């Protein structure tokens, strides 16, 4: 079982081009990095459970329904009367997304540590706002340390939102490295965390704990560097980009699915993965993300959509 922890929110995405001086319509879409990851894993048919706190408002009910429809176990979802977090998405000419957030007093920030995890949880995946915004961040951080301390595999995607984090976050991130088995992040996030050359930073991060670091690079594809010294990259498959919302989350979810299907549930097992297997993993993740970017919003593919692809 894969446990994905973190925020669920609603993205308000421009639905149409407004005339000059007017605001266009906003389409509400389910979102949040960890939420999208859990949806991706569920649709790709790996066993996944979601940990978060969802509002009892209409948005929260819709978010919960979508989890269930995507095959995600919701037994560890906490509920509360606080409102759902909102993210206003702006779409650039290249399909890239920019966000502003409404997070004060929202439900996902009030999550509590669930206590000892069920025995069936093998992999814990965390990231995005959930590790940046208190009071929930402290509980997720403890969950990360607890699971790693038991010798099990943890996966982290910082998914930096510059509007909501300060440079002090870099120091906090550094303290997590010994407890991270697989670090997945975009090249832009790596540059922000490094406050300099991201590739040089990756080498330093690998020396401090992770078995591997996966970098998503947009149109330039996906790259992995391992603690053993391997480097593997795959190109981005040809596709028509509608927007990039959820692309990195789909990569993350596909990698979690690959870990489960490969029986990899400890950092030591991940260190044994060779370059050929990494190439297969990255190719699978790239193909999944190519489907997501071909449609509006975070809509990860179902397993059947990838089954017939080469």
The name of the CATH superfamily reads Ribokinase
- The strands making up the biggest β-sheet line up spatially as 5-4-1-8-9-10-11-12-13
The best one-word shape is: globular
Write down the overall mean pLDDT: 92
CATH class: Alpha Beta
Provide the domain count.
1
In brief:
The chain has helices at residues 33-43, 58-69, 136-149, 168-176, 187-194, 198-206, 247-261, 267-271, 275-293, 303-307, and strands at 2-5, 9-14, 26-31, 48-55, 77-80, 85-91, 97-102, 123-127, 153-157, 182-186, 212-216, 222-226, 231-234. The chain is α/β, with parallel strands linked by helices and 310 residues long.
Walk me through the structure:
- The strands form 2 sheets. This protein has a 9-stranded mixed β-sheet, sandwiched between helices. The chain has a 4-stranded mixed β-sheet with strand order 3-2-6-7.
- It has 310 residues and is α/β, with parallel strands linked by helices.
- The mean pLDDT is 92.
- It has a single domain (31-51, 70-78, 111-302), classed as 3-Layer(aba) Sandwich (UDP-N-acetylmuramoyl-L-alanine:D-glutamate ligase).
- The chain has helices at residues 33-43, 58-69, 136-149, 168-176, 187-194, 198-206, 247-261, 267-271, 275-293, 303-307; strands at 2-5, 9-14, 26-31, 48-55, 77-80, 85-91, 97-102, 123-127, 153-157, 182-186, 212-216, 222-226, 231-234.
- α1 (33-43) packs across α7, α5 packs across α6 (198-206) and α7 (247-261) runs antiparallel to α9 (275-293).
